[in-house]
Amino acid sequence: MELRQLRSFVVVAEEMNVGRAATRLHLTQPSLSRQIAALERDLGVELFARVKKRFVMTAAGETFLAEAQDLLRRSDEAVRAAQRTQRGELGSLRLRFVQSATFEPLPQILGAFRQAYPEVVLDLESMTTLRQTEALRDGRIDVGLLRPTVPASVGSAGGKSGTVVRLAPGLVSRVVAEDQLVAVLPARHRLTRRKRIRLTDLAEEPFVFYSRPSGPAVHDTILGFCRAAGFTPRIEQEAADVQTIVSLVAAGLGVSLLISPTPPSNPDSVVYRELSDDLPPWPLSVAWSPDNRSPVLARFLEIV
Question: Which domains does the chain have, with CATH numbers?
């Protein structure tokens, strides 16, 4: 039994006239009659009969018609689903991101992607750059938003937005944003009177700092900036996420340094200040494996 035979049968059933059905199907009458006869032989039942010179459907034909229509509908749906999957309109995307991407780049990218491809299933989770790199190489995720290099290693060629760089063997990343380090201060702190401050202005302050396990590259790089400025931060509290750091600063437990963009906060509790130090920008990149042939990934990279 072939799909073309089912389609021919349904059209004949709708027209109840072989001539009109043949015209709709762009077939000759003898060819259409042979298809129906072959279908009846395959099924072992009679689908149509002549009753008093009238062309009628048998009881078996009426039962088979409903099932044939359902089979054709599902066949058409399967074809459309396969075509849409090939275009990247259906499927899933496993995306991981560093915390510092969540306040501006991630919402913008996901908003645009969801609008363009609303039926793609998104698997989202915050993850450090190191873990993302491992997951990308192992094929456990499709794409990552991460910090592929620490700012100190970014030269004149590596920090340009849109530049394609090698992240690790077998992976590629593209810079999508360049961010700066900012100071986070309690709203009543004496330094909030200034529009910009220096790292050395924070030398005697207690710090709320990234915990190293939650982001070793970020922790070590910020620590390195402070030491290059001539002091080692006095870390009073550590936190694994940016929101908690901001909350602890708002509570007056210390000051902090964060990668912009920063989370929204009440200016009566927390104030952000630019640094006047000549610090290199901190690139945010999208990373993927060129071996990943997912059409959804290709559409996502176009949006990014």
Answer: 3-86 (1.10.10.10), 92-178+287-303 (3.40.190.10), 181-278 (3.40.190.10)
